[in-house]
Amino acid sequence: MVVSPFQMPKMKAPLATSLALAVGLLVLLGYFLPLGPLAVVRSLFLQWAILLAATALLAGVFQMVLTHGMLLQTQPAEEAAYSLVLIVGLVLAFGLTMVEGLGGRAVVWMMDYIILPTAGSLLALLSLTLIYASVNLLRRRGGLLSLLFVSTLLLILLGTAALPRWGTLPLLSDTLRPWIAQVPAAAGARGILLGVALGILATALRVLLGSDRPYRD
Amino acid sequence: MSDTSTLLCPVCGKPNPSHREVCQYCQAPLRPSAGTAPFVEEPLPPAEEPAGQPPEEELPPWLRELMEEQEETVPAAGEGEGPSLGSRLEALREDEGQRDTEGEGPFTQAWLSEEGAAEEIPDWLKEAAGEALPSESPGPFTAAPAEEEEAAWPEWLQSLSEEPAEPSPAQTEAEAEPEAPLALQEAAPAEEEPSPEPASRTALPILAQEDEDLALDEVPEWLEELPPDALTWAETETQQEAPAEGEGLTPGALPGWLEALRPMAPEVEEEAALEEEAEEVEGPLAGIQGVLPAKSPFQPAKGKVAPKSRLVVSEEQGRQVALLQETLAQEQKVAPVRPKQFWEPQRVLRMALALALLVVVWLPSLFGQLMPPLPDRFPPEMMAFYQAVEALPPEAPVLVAVDYAPGWTAEMEAAARPVLEHLLARQVRLVLISTLPTGPTLAEHLVQGVAPEAGYQEGAAYLNLGYLSGGTAALQQFALDPQGTVPWDIGGRLAWTWPPLRSFRTLGDFAALVIITDDPDVGRAWVEQVRPSLPAQIPLLMVLSTQAEPLIRPYFEGSTPQVQGMVTGLVGGLGYTRLTGRLSQGVQYWGGFSLGLWMAIGLILIGGLYNLFLGIRSRRRSHDG
Q: Strand pairing of A162-163 and A167-168?
């Protein structure tokens, strides 16, 4: 088990809860009443949040280096090779960016020939996987919902694809596909957005009332 | 581990949990107590030899005084009054031992019917004697066998009835055997076959105590007048009336079915024996062994009783146990790992699909005639976007947020490049920012790819503010105070000293905001955190991936739109290309994209129908089978 050097002693529950409630209420008040001191306090806390987030990112990178450094010593050679590649790549990218900046030639080269092709290939695999899953869907779950899903998928694809010389299919591309995207899909999306908003509201109230304390762990 | 066995009640026969002391149905004690042991048939082990006379200093002073007075008065009284009290006590003691062997107390009917004694016995005692106590349930006044009685008597009491030079108990038994009276001779076998009533042992101290009281001149007159041989005669008669062993139920014998239910409590027996041998350490009985315990005879035993209940397993249960054992044995067997074969059918199918897609996607690059015509559909969100860009004044700063992951670069750049080309054509000032760590580099990649020949330089033609950490909180603060939140660009220069931004104080000073993202949550965060800080006339425009469009569209279609324009995916980028009249990078994707979609449609359609047929046939077979 790898022990994190960033493990801090836990703050006393009443103190942490009071601090969280006070900060949350002050920021909320500053949002609704952007007057003098409240606006200043709100802006101050938000700046601290930005600094803390950036520091947490650096701490996470450092923790990852430590973790993989320990794995290099404890794991077998086959598995430790991945940790070695990660550490070498991280050190190289970090060092080159610090020296040349984000617009440096070496940094752009790494982005163009390592990061982008790798990430794009992973996403292409996702498309292949989805096609394979769609092919096997009707065999494993041959219900009405599966038929509806595959039919909708085929209609969207048919309304998007274009044939050589002919272009897109007339009825599907300009009527059916937009209708599916703007009526059923948009209705579902609005429902999701409303649910997300209610969930955020409930979570915020729970945190502000102290019944949910995610900062405790 | 908890004991899950049960104890059967010796009275009602119902099972009880093993931890219970009394029956939960009839409240009868489940375990024999040390004092009573009503269901203990086995004789207790013979008592150990007496530990000897207790030291004189352990006796209480009043008892020592009594002993000294007794030594002085007893010999004088015995000289002129026939048999001495000591000899009579000896005879009485032997007689009591004999009676105890036969399971009979001193107040038996024969003893009470003796002439002379019957006259002085009250009527209630006669009536009580008529109900002769059964031998298997002796009363508390029964005596122990003679040898054990002697062992239990204190030395000073034995000295009252024996010769001064008293031999050891063993020697006494050996020497007294030919000359012992009838009662003692008949009591001798009982020592070899201990009495089935262990409770009589506990009665011994009472009798000894009574003898002691008798020795203290408290012997009633009727007892002094009783001839010694009368007791012997009565005992002999009682023995002759006792049923022979084997005729019917012997005293204390249990039927077979009851024997099977009887709980075994060896610990309890041992504890009872230890308690008998315990010596009183305080009070008037100090120094006397084997006195009655102070606790109630019905007090539950301390030791755990090992239940004798047997688990009855039916044939069906036996089969289930065997099945469970077999299953557990199979669980421990390690199944051999089948080596992966390269040419597995599913693996071959996946490789064939990937190969077919690759070939089809490459074909338009090899054969130009396979390139389909560009889409000619211009949705309203795209037209709104175009019109908003057209309305921007020249040299106006526009904030562009590059918030997509590297994996989505192909689609997002195909959609965003026509927009950036349009913006640059409008000679606006681009200010780039990102809420993702990889965003600043992707922003550089995007701008450099729009017009490589133009040679745009960061800090001159555009400004890259870099990475904005903190998520939604950072967006909120950035909307309030952009200068304080991001004071430098990625080159380390003071961003807000750049000439186009010198007069800027808030985000409302930008001419427009363009958000390029593949994540609907990121787009929603910009709408919710930044849009309220923007004046209504400042458009918030979005370039989205196809997957993010459904969740952002409601912000565009509202009665008061919070998003003023959208360009979606490759198709949207190509449509924008046709609007601007400038061919962009997305055009070369269009052929491969369209043929790849047709290939996917064919695979899903054919493979889906085939698998649907297989699934229906499989379900039908399983249903018929």
A: antiparallel
Residue A216's alpha-carbon distances to A5, A19, B602, in angstroms, are 19, 12, 53
What is the identity of the amino acid at B405? A
How many DSSP H helices and E strands does chain A contain? 9, 2
Cα–Cα distance measured from residue B159 to residue B120, given in angstroms and rounded to the nearest whole number: 31
CA distance linking residue B516 with residue B542, whole number of Å: 6
Which parts of chain A have pLDDT scores under 50?
A: none
- Give the angle subtended at the CA of A194 by the CAs of A190 and A197, to the nearest 5°: 135
Nearest to B103 by CA among B239, B240, B229, B233: B239
DSSP element (H, E) containing B603: helix B587-624
Digit-coded pLDDT (tens) for B164-190: 444 444 444 444 444 444 444 444 444
Q: Which long-range contacts (C-beta less than 8 Å, at least 24 apart) are formed by A152-157?
A: A152/A180, A153/B604, A154/B601, A154/B604, A154/B605, A155/A180, A156/A180, A156/A181, A157/B597, A157/B600, A157/B601, A157/B604
Mapped to the 3 state alphabet, what secondary structure does B206-235 carry?
A: HHHHHHHHHHHHHCCHHHHHCCHHHHHHHH
Distance between CA atoms of residues A161 and A172, nearest Å: 10
B531, two tokens: 């849009």
Of A127, A132, A161, the CB nearest to B598: A161
What is the distance between the alpha carbons of residues B46 and B505, in angstroms, rounded to a whole number?
109
Number of other residues whose CB lies within 10 A of the CB of residue B143: 30
Chain B residues within 8 A of A53 when measuring between CB atoms: 469-471, 473-474
In DSSP terms, which residues pair with B432 in a beta bridge? B400, B464
A183 has a chain B CB within 8 A of its CB: no
| Termini Cα distance of chain B | 47
Say whether the ipTM exceeds 0.95: no
Which residue in chain B is spatially nearest to A114 when comparing CA positions?
A: B406
Q: Which two tokens stand for residue A12?
A: 């006393």
Q: By three-state DSSP, how is residue B297 classified?
A: coil
Q: Is the dihedral of CA A77, A83, A86, A89 positive or negative?
A: negative
Contacting residues of A for B410, CB less than 8 Å apart: 120
**Cα distance between residue B600 and residue A120, in whole Å:** 19
| B472-494: pLDDT as tens digits | 889 999 998 899 899 988 888 88
Give the residue from B585, B543, B401 showing the smallest Cα distance to B475: B401
Please state, in angstroms and rounded to a whole number, the distance separating the CA atoms of residues B271 and B306: 14
Q: Using the beta-carbon criterion (under 8 Å), do A128 and B608 form an inter-chain contact?
A: no
DSSP B498: S
